[in-house]
Design a protein that fits this description.
The radius of gyration is 25 Å and the shape is globular. Helix 5 links the parallel strand 6 and strand 7. Helix 3 packs across helix 5, helix 4 crosses helix 5 and helix 12 crosses helix 14. It is built from 20 helices and 32 strands. With 675 residues, the chain is α/β, with parallel strands linked by helices. It has an 8-stranded mixed beta sheet, sandwiched between helices. Strands 5-4-17-16-18-19-20 form a 7-stranded mixed beta sheet. The structure holds 5'-O-[(S)-butoxy(hydroxy)phosphoryl]adenosine. 5'-O-[(S)-butoxy(hydroxy)phosphoryl]adenosine binds next to helix 10, strand 20, strand 26 and strand 27.
Length: 675
């Protein structure tokens, strides 16, 4: 089969159309071809971007694992996302359609900004950052924002100046915010007085004030008057955005600053099992090349699409697939502020209908919550405009997959589960409606995208047999990969590149079926996925042990019907402390306060001891097995920290412990059933 790899920017010809289907064998043959002439393959994709200066070398692999893409190339992400479209035939095309959560008599508030509007606003914002705050190349601008258009506009403005940005999800606490801002070295912070969520106001500025109490890299704070609540404005540090903008000329323009392909675009923190959050540093050139390719291959994006990704810009999904991916393609991006089921459970379906959304990117958690509310809410709306859907963040269960396919679009919409992670920058494994669609199986992730080599390996790094669980690796560098972990290059090497030298270790379990489809099963480490959000056990445990009554703590994720997983804490109290429901609620509140509402444990259990290896490492896998009522046999595979015997013993012991333990409601478990 002849393949047209070319994805010309301004010829929206559906040469590779969504109706193209292929067999898994045909796809694999095509994929193999992309790897044969790799990295020239990626060079071809990169050639479709408007660079200010072409690269000298596609891939510099002289200092692995610190690979550099399109070295010598220069570009500016803001001009690619905005100027190019504002100067051409898309000037009057809607770039951002924003819908606010609040519903008044006249319905929801909707703001539409064309590419020309975005261009004007980005320039004014860049003028403020440059002339009032001295932001320039090398600086970092921090963000702690609700989902309003000013969020991407100021991100693009920072990038226009050659600066990098660091976004902290607005559900994180003061402590988490302060830690991330300082690690990234943000000098200016863009925030808002508050955000709206389910008819209440989240007082973001108060959280910012808390974060900046201790010594901080942040010297200036720009505050968007968003909800109009009264906030503390510190003289000399804080300024309202509208006041700052009032000083900018109405037609302010700021020239985009060319940066090198391998300069940093952003730092985004991820949680792991040990240590503080890791600041993943992403480059400009490789990242945009990957986004360009995936917008076409995965989403089959065309000029007449209305594209909606339901994530928050605070997570990598929003960085890549709300801001940079769709805008660089000149798409119309729908941006929604609030909860998908507010004020009624059909809000999401009504958004699809009213805005005629054609491409939808959402999460298993969202789908499970739709499902829970029943089919009628979905059926009440005409969602026939939807022609491509994908989900992301965690494995999707077949029921949720089938439900979505049955209830949205015309029942036959290509629907995939895209696998990737903060580290990869963009989608790595997916079904590819824009290239040619293989038969879809409910819950599968599909195949690695062209130019990316993925494998499922055993503990020795050898290819795992079909239908046998192994570990997921990426066997070559790819555009969009991290440059490093900010301030900690040796950790980058250690965490991702040392387990299987030469390959990137993703930290996920996976299997391939007889036809080669990938099925990612979930984390092989102790990372917890709550509503698709990644939480490190370390941060939650550190919060718990800050309580004067707590001696030791372990947190594990247990299955949750809607959220995928929920955190559950196990704590050993200090002598004299009282194990009662009051203390358990206090501990839950403490985690909420220290880490953020998304991290609030579902339960906290008091135990006398925790299962540990001889080297005193807590066996969270054993705790989890007990908590979910699994037998330890299911979890001993691939456990490296202890011998199978040791795990069995620890399991039996701990099971005895927990059946005697009391949960918050004072219920006793003596039946050995899941908590
Ligand atoms: C982890 C990365 C990628 C943006 C959102 C999450 C899990 C992600 C899938 C999927 C099964 C998935 C993995 C991965 N994951 N997508 N389609 N099927 N698992 O980014 O917060 O960095 O988390 O999310 O476990 O390692 P992240």
């Amino acid at each position: 089969m002849s393949v047209n790899w070319s994805l010309p920017f301004d010829e929206r010809v559906r040469t590779v159309s969504r109706s193209t289907t292929m067999t898994p064998r045909e796809y694999e043959a095509m994929h193999e071809r992309s790897l044969e002439n790799w990295p020239e393959f990626w060079e071809g994709v990169a050639s479709e971007l408007p660079w200010h200066r072409r690269w000298d070398k596609v891939l510099d692999d002289s200092a692995p694992p610190f690979y550099r893409w399109f070295v010598g190339g220069e570009l500016n992400a803001c001009s690619i996302c905005v100027d190019r479209h504002a100067a051409g035939h898309r000037a009057s095309k809607p770039a951002i359609i924003w819908e606010g959560e609040a519903v008044a008599d006249r319905g929801p508030t909707v703001r539409t900004m064309t590419y020309a509007d975005v261009h004007r606003e980005v320039n004014r914002a860049a003028w403020v950052l440059k002339h009032r705050y001295g932001v320039a190349k090398g600086d970092t601008v921090g963000f702690y924002m609700p989902m309003v258009p000013e969020f991407p506009i100021f991100m693009l403005a920072a990038v226009r100046l050659g600066a990098k940005f660091t976004v902290v999800f607005s559900g994180f606490s003061s402590d988490s915010l302060s830690e991330r801002l300082n690690d990234a070295g943000a000098k200016v912070l863009v925030t808002a007085d508050g955000g709206r969520r389910r008819d209440s106001v989240v007082r973001l500025k108060d959280i910012v004030d808390g974060a900046l109490q201790a010594s901080s890299s942040v010297k200036s704070v720009l505050v968007l008057k968003n909800v109009g609540n009264s906030v503390n404005m510190e003289t000399g540090r804080d300024e309202y955005i509208h006041d700052a903008l009032a000083r900018a000329p109405a037609d302010a323009t700021v020239e985009p600053v060319s940066v090198r392909s391998d300069d940093p675009l952003f730092i985004l923190h991820t949680s792991g099992t040990t240590g503080r959050p890791k600041g993943q540093v992403h480059d400009v050139g490789g990242y945009l090349v990957l986004l360009h390719a995936t917008m076409r291959w995965v989403f089959d994006l065309n000029d007449d699409d209305v594209y909606w990704c339901t994530a928050d810009i605070g997570w990598v999904t929003g960085h890549s697939y709300i801001v940079f991916g769709p805008l660089m393609e000149g798409a119309t991006v729908l941006m929604y502020e609030g909860a998908l089921d507010h004020p009624s459970p059909d809000r999401w379906a009504s958004i699809l209908e009213r805005h005629k959304v054609s491409v939808l990117y959402t999460s298993p958690t969202a789908i499970r919550s739709f499902m829970k509310n029943g089919d009628a809410w979905a059926k009440a709306h005409d969602t026939s405009s939807v022609r491509v859907m994908h989900s992301v963040g965690e494995p999707i269960n077949p029921e949720a997959f089938r439900w979505m396919r049955r209830n949205v679009g015309e029942g036959q919409v290509p629907f995939g589960s895209t696998w990737w992670m903060t580290e990869t920058g963009g989608i790595m494994i997916s079904v590819l409606p824009g290239l040619g669609l293989v038969p879809i199986k409910p819950g599968t992730n599909g195949f690695p995208i062209p130019g990316v080599e993925a494998a499922v390996v055993d503990e020795q790094g050898l290819p795992q047999k079909p239908f046998t669980r192994g570990l997921l690796v990426l066997k070559r560098p790819w555009p969009g990969m991290p440059l490093t972990i900010h301030n900690d290059p040796s950790r980058y090497k250690e965490v991702y590149w040392s387990r299987f030298p030469g390959s990137f270790f993703a930290g996920d379990y996976a299997v391939r079926d007889g036809e080669g489809y990938f099925w990612i099963l979930g984390r092989a480490d102790e990372v917890i996925k709550v509503s698709g959000h990644r939480l490190g056990t370390y941060e939650l445990e550190s919060a718990l042990v800050q309580h004067p009554s707590v001696a030791e703590a372990a947190v594990v994720g247990v299955p949750d019907e809607v959220k995928g997983e929920a955190p559950v804490g196990f704590v050993i109290l200090r002598v004299g402390a009282n194990a009662d429901a009051g203390l358990a609620s206090e501990l839950k509140a403490l985690v909420r306060e220290k880490v953020g509402p998304i991290a609030t444990p579902r339960e906290v259990f008091f135990v006398g001891k925790l299962p540990k290896t001889r080297s005193a490492k807590i066996m969270r896998r054993v705790i989890r097995a007990v908590a979910v009522g699994q037998s330890v046999g299911d979890v001993s595979t691939l456990e490296e920290e202890a011998s199978v015997d040791e795990i069995r013993r620890a399991y039996a012991d701990f099971r005895g412990e927990v059946s005697g333990a009391q949960d918050v409601a004072g219920r006793k478990r003596t039946d050995g059933r899941p908590l």
